[in-house]
Amino acid sequence: MAKDERVAVVTGGNRGLGLGIARQLGKAGFVVVIGSRDEAAGKAAAGELAAAGLRAEAHALDVTSDESVGELAAYLESAHGGLDALENNAGIAMDGFDAEVARRTLETNFFGVVRVTDRLLPLMRAGGRVVMVSSGLGGTSGLPASLRDRLHAADLGRAELEAMMRGFVEAVAAGTHDEKGWPSSAYSVSKMGLNALTALYARELAEDPRRILVNAACPGWVRTRMGGAGAPRSVEEGADTPAWLATIGDGAGQGQVFRDRLQVGW
Ligand code: NAP
Fold it and tell me: DSSP letter at 107?
C-alpha cells in the first residue's frame, strides 16, 4: 500500500447510485474498488472514473456468494493491505411478491450486507467507515409495536435479528406474514433489517480500538435503473449522503440513519 492511500469498496459500483458514490469517493481522494457481478461492467465503470483522473479499480463481487466475497477480501489484503471505507450499496427491488421474491430480496439486501461486512471488517483500518445504502421504505412506523420495538431494541442481538429476517421469509412462504404484522414488501423489510443491522454493528464495534463508524444513508428517490426515469433526484444528489458518511469525523454519527446529511428516525 502506498503511504496515505485510503481505499474504499463500493458494492454494486458498476452503475446507478454505486457508480455515483464511487465517483464522489474518488474525488474525495480514495482509491475506489468497484465490486461488480459483471466483471466487464465493473471494468468499464472503473475506466470511466480513471478517464476522469480518479483512482479506481474493479473486482468481481456477488454479495450472495461466500466464495466471491472471500476472493474480494483476499484481493484487498494482498493489493492494499486492507480498506478504509465500505459502501454496502448493492441491492435489488424485484417485481411481485411471493416467497421466492422475499428469499432473494433478503438474501441480497440484508444477508449480502452481513456477508460482506463480516468478511471485510477484520481488514478495516483504524478510523474506517461502513455505510449502508438504505431507503425511506425501511421505516418501521407501520409495523406493530411487537416487531418495531424489537428492531429498535438496544439489546437486539445478531441471532435475533437474523431470525426475524428469516422468519419473515418463512412467513411469506406460509402465507402468514400479514397476520404476523409484516408488510407485503420484501424490499421494505430488507431495509428495515438493514437499519437495525446498522445499529447492531455500531454496538458490536463499541469497544473496538479502531473507532470504526457504521451508519446508513437514505438517498431519496433517484433516477437509476431501480428508481426509474421519473424519480426526482439525480444520481449525484442521491450519492451525496452515502459518500459523505465515508468521510465523517469521529463522533459525527454511529449506528444511525442519515438523509441529506441529517440524522433521521426510521
Ligand atoms: P440499480 O441501478 O438497480 O443498481 C443496483 C446495483 O446493485 C447494480 O450494480 C447491481 O449489479 C448491484 N447488485 C445487485 N445484486 C447484486 C449482487 N448479488 N452482488 C453484487 N451486486 C449486486 O439500483 P440503484 O438505484 O443504484 O440502487 C443502489 C442502492 O440504493 C440499492 O441498495 C437500493 O436499494 C438503494 N436505493 C435506491 C433508491 C432509488 O431511488 N434508486 C432509493 C433508495 C435506496 P448488476 O449491474 O450486476 O445488476
Answer: I
DSSP 130-146: EEEE--GGG--TTS-HH
List the chain pLDDT tens, one digit each, 266 residues.
566 799 999 999 999 999 999 999 999 999 999 999 999 999 999 999 999 999 999 999 999 999 999 999 999 999 999 999 999 999 999 999 999 999 999 999 999 999 999 999 999 999 999 999 999 999 999 999 999 999 999 999 999 999 999 999 999 999 999 999 999 999 999 999 999 999 999 999 999 999 999 999 999 999 999 999 999 999 999 999 999 999 999 989 999 999 999 999 99
How many Å apart are CA 205 and CA 195, to the nearest integer?
Answer: 16
Q: What amino acid positions are annotated as catalytic residues?
A: 187
CA end-to-end span of the chain, whole Å? 39
What is the rounded distance in angstroms from the CA atom of residue 221 to the CA atom of residue 18?
A: 14
C-alpha to C-alpha distance for 151 and 157, rounded to whole angstroms? 10
- Is residue 253 left, alpha or beta, with left meaning phi > 0 and alpha meaning psi from -120 to 50? left
Residue 68's SS3 state is helix
Is the CB of residue 24 below 6 angstroms from any atom belonging to ligand 1?
no
60: CA distance to ligand 1 center in Å?
15
